[in-house]
Design goal:
The chain has 327 residues and is of the alpha+beta class. The chain is 55% helix and 13% strand. It folds into 2 domains: 248 residues, Beta Polymerase, domain 2 (2-Layer Sandwich); 61 residues, Methane Monooxygenase Hydroxylase, Chain G, domain 1, CATH 1.20.58. The protein is rod-shaped, with a radius of gyration of 35 Å.
């Protein structure tokens, strides 16, 4: 994709890409319509366009910012926005969400990205299939809705992964690596949620602002985008909580298994403690040991120890400490 793309749209949505993109932005908008400039600021050409576009220092700094959080700030009839979309670039992590910076007025929309954002590609591809947006507000709504479209499959996959882990945790032998998978799911949900709720607030703030170029249709579309982002944020909350519940279940089962093993070791030690005492007492190297001269004494001692061990096992069984099975 070119570092700078320019589009011009009439109020009825007709129009499309125009050239040259480097032309003054205020000359691109048709009568009653608006222009859209999309800039890739990862290289010097895109950054140079921002510097030469005639923006005030505050706007220029906002469009060139390297770190952003979703927000919407109104200055008169213009708006500075920052949105986030899931990172679906090859080799990237979806939760490493891509930032999109926006300057919006009645006749001009400037969007700036440093990494490719699939939602922008979807909007541009949609221009070839039908009419374009009739106003700047409708374009912002399209971008927000396409961003939600791209995030929904990622959140759905997280739900499927946590479903699988919940089912596996109910089995007798949890799969290896379950705790690492749970930690990864929780990390993804937390990082995505970090931007979803501020994005909801930014879209909601824009929707309620009294801006002359924000019509009823654009407000309705922004409201729909806000609802979808809210639903995604709530699902991420639920995924995070479910991951914590499954983690607690796994840890409880591990603690229960360890307790059973410790109980078994304690019972075995309790059984052999008196036996060890008796054999140690009879094994001391002093005179007067009973039965030392009898050939049957050894077998009598073995029989006595066996009877004592059986009695201790029966006692522990009656106390519910031996052979107990977990439910």
């Amino acid at each position: 994709m070119d570092p700078v793309l320019a589009f011009a749209f009439a109020p009825d949505g007709s129009g499309g890409q125009v050239t040259p993109a480097a032309r003054a932005a205020d000359q691109l908008a048709p009568e009653g319509g608006f222009a859209w400039i999309h800039v890739n600021a990862s290289g010097p050409e895109g950054q140079g366009w921002i510097d030469q576009a005639g923006f005030d220092p505050l706007t220029r700094a906002a469009l060139r910012a390297t770190e952003t959080r979703p927000r919407a700030t109104v200055h008169g009839d213009t708006v500075l926005m920052a949105l986030r979309g899931v990172n679906l670039n090859p080799g990237a992590e979806p939760e490493d969400m891509v930032s999109l910076r926006l300057f919006v007025s009645a006749t001009l929309v400037v969007t700036v990205e440093r990494r490719d954002l699939n939602a922008i590609d979807d909007v541009i591809a949609g221009l070839a299939r039908g009419p374009g947006p009739g106003s700047a507000g409708e374009l912002i709504a399209r971008i927000a809705l396409r961003s939600a479209d791209r995030a929904e499959p990622v959140v759905a996959r997280l739900n499927e992964r946590i479903d699988d882990l919940e089912a596996a945790s109910e089995g007798r032998r949890p799969p290896p690596g379950q705790r690492a998978e749970l930690a990864n799911i929780r990390r993804m949900a937390i990082l995505m949620r970090r931007y979803m709720f501020p994005q909801r607030d930014a879209l909601s703030s824009l929707e309620i602002e009294d801006l002359p170029w924000l019509g009823a249709h654009a407000r309705a579309r922004l409201r729909e985008a806000t609802e979808r982002v809210t639903r995604l944020a709530e699902e991420l909350d639920a995924i995070r909580d479910r991951a914590q519940v499954v983690h607690d279940m796994v840890m409880d089962r591990r603690a229960e298994a360890m307790n059973r093993q410790m109980l078994l070791l304690s019972v075995v030690s309790s059984v052999f403690l008196p036996l060890t005492f008796l054999t140690g007492l009879l094994g001391i190297n002093v005179g007067g040991i009973p039965g030392s001269a009898s050939p049957r004494a050894f077998w009598l001692v073995v029989a006595l120890l066996s009877i004592l061990a059986a009695a201790l096992v029966l006692l522990f069984r009656r106390l519910g400490l031996f052979g107990e099975k977990s439910e």
